[in-house]
Write a structure and sequence with these properties.
With 273 residues, this protein is of the alpha/beta class. The protein contains twelve helices and ten strands. It binds adenosine-5'-diphosphate (ADP).
Amino acid sequence: MKEEIIEVKNLTYEYQTGTHALNHINITVKRGEKIAVMGSNGAGKSTFFLNLNGVLQPDGGEIRYRGKVIGKKELNELRKNVGFVFQDADSQIIASDVQGEVSFGPMNLKLSKEEVRKRVEEALEYMNITEYRNRPPHYLSGGEKKRVSIADIIAMKSEVVLFDEPTAALDPLSADMLEEVLAKLSAEGKTLLISTHDVDFAYRWAERIVVFCQGNIIADGTPLEIFQNEKVLEQAHLKKPAMYTVYEALAERGLVETGSYPRLPEELKTILK
Ligand code: ADP
């Protein structure tokens, strides 16, 4: 059994405007899981992520990280271990050059100069952006900025990484790059939670989908369980993934070997009759 890394119990969060963004959220995340977080705009996904990495603090309930309840004193520990890649890189990036940007997190961890330098080198290399090290991040393309914002988190060596709609506004090449990075992070045992509206991406990438609706978790299951649940799809305004629909149509006409639902085109090809 995989170890539990985050436990959220009865989490509630209300903005100062009086909006109840999260109502009694309960969820357990295990080490190495690949979770897609779905739901309409305003469902509470970002607020949930901001609570998970300690930017916001719950109004009620608790968050445990590796069994330890997160109070004010433990917030830095949570922020160090749970990295957050913002949807809009411009709201994450603060430094005037790429190298400075990526060193910002490790410097805040009060690591030695040598360790900071090492982590920055590794992160730049990991994201293939070493050549941009002296460039101002704000003049990079959308895909390049996304690489920088992920390098920020890599340099922190966070165990859990939260991505807020990472594929939004990326061109196809950058979206492919992102999926490669996600695969690499997963292979290294990182725990990944990604909020997304992209049902096709969620279907092929996630092993678990958590659906938010009006501040509540209305479903939590495998992609197949979620996309077979008409009520949940309707409530959260989710469409079925193309691969799922194509497979069902082919299966109905007896054109594929039935049994396991393919997630990728290559898998579909192998079961075509
Ligand atoms: P999602 O990420 O699923 O789109 P959010 O977590 O951003 O949802 O929003 C949940 C609810 O909280 C929405 O009703 C939204 O309008 C409200 N909200 C989000 N951010 C703020 C804020 N900074 N101040 C007040 N209300 C907010």
